[in-house]
Amino acid sequence: MIFLCREDIEKIFKMEDALNAVEEAYIAHAHGEIVMPPKMDLHLDKGLLRYMPAYVRSIDSAGAKIVNIHPQNPRESSLPTVMALIVINNPATGEPIAVMDGTYITAMRTGAAGGISAKYLSRKDASVVGMVGAGVQARGQLMALIQVRNISEVKVYDMYRDASERFAREVGETLDIQITTVESAKEAVVGSDIVVTTTTSRKPVVMNEWVDIGTHVCAVGADTPGKRELDLSLLKRGKIVVDDVSQSTTIGELNIPYRDGLIELEEIYGEIGEIIIGRKEGREAEDEITIFDTSGLAAQDIISAHHILNDAKRKKIGLEMKVF
């Protein structure tokens, strides 16, 4: 069995790799090449543990990710909100063949999901990004966006001022891009070509009247029932694209309006994979408002881990141990 820590994976898995892995996952999903049971949550006093299994037929790879979501961690324990572990198994025998850190992979593939949505749904001349939320997920989103669009201006807002200032300072320096902190979500949204939300909010943080025509909105934060980030009027106004319809309507951005009968399945334009393979059109007009809800696919983790494992073997990275 191969063991890979975060430092091992960082040597192998860059944002370009994450973008390729996520797009591959969306394509496989659209072609029906994925077996992916619903995520299973173990609810705890201050958060949850989530079990995410998947089998990807196109690459004959299977496994699962165990990930936590503890929103109070950064304030109470200096730990990240999200941490994860991925196990890859041999589909033919069930033998575990790799165990690897999943925290870095999760951040990268989630960021890449937003990047792929911008690649297919934002205007090609989109250059101004407004970010609501300044945590780890926001970093990954911006890393991906600068790979797919020529970004010249970034505005960031977080309910914790020190978080937005740290984001602007550290991420701006790392990515060599000017990031401006603003005093409200409205300031971050107004005038932006791409809007990214990465909060843990349970009520809308982006209102319809703030969003200009032609904007692409990527909603990342809603990942459990009860969370939401977008105004209902905005959802009604935009073209809604999701990564997986069943997940979006149960744990994603649409979970509350769908539960309450305010959004019908017919109002969801389609899944991003359908657009990538050409089954449906992406952006159809310059003034169109597009909305992407990423609830996160276990297949993204398995495909990422599969390629990481193959690269690690080729480059002789990681710790190999016998466990049986």
Question: Can you put this structure into words, describing what you see?
Answer:
The structure is a single chain. With 324 residues, this protein is of the alpha/beta class. It folds into 2 domains: 2-105 and 299-320, ornithine cyclodeaminase, domain 1; 110-297, NAD(P)-binding Rossmann-like Domain (Rossmann fold, 3-Layer(aba) Sandwich). Helix content is 36%, strand content 26%. It has helices spanning 6-12, 15-30, 73-76, 103-121, 136-148, 161-175, 185-189, 232-237, 245-248, 255-259, 272-276, 298-315, and strands at 2-4, 34-35, 40-43, 48-56, 61-69, 82-89, 96-101, 128-132, 153-157, 179-181, 194-197, 202-206, 216-219, 228-230, 239-242, 268-271, 290-293, 319-320. Helix 6 links the parallel strand 9 and strand 10. Helix 2 packs across helix 4. The model has no long low-confidence stretch (mean pLDDT 96).
Shape: globular
CATH H-level homologous superfamily name of the largest domain: NAD(P)-binding Rossmann-like Domain
Number of continuous helical runs: 12
Let me know the largest β-sheet.
8 strands, mixed
Secondary-structure element series: EHHEEEEHEEHEHEHEHEEEEHEHHEHEHE
Question: Which CATH-level-2 architecture of the largest domain?
Answer: 3-Layer(aba) Sandwich
Identify the CATH class of the largest domain.
Alpha Beta
Radius of gyration: 19 Å
What are the segments in which pLDDT stays under 50 over at least 5 consecutive residues?
none
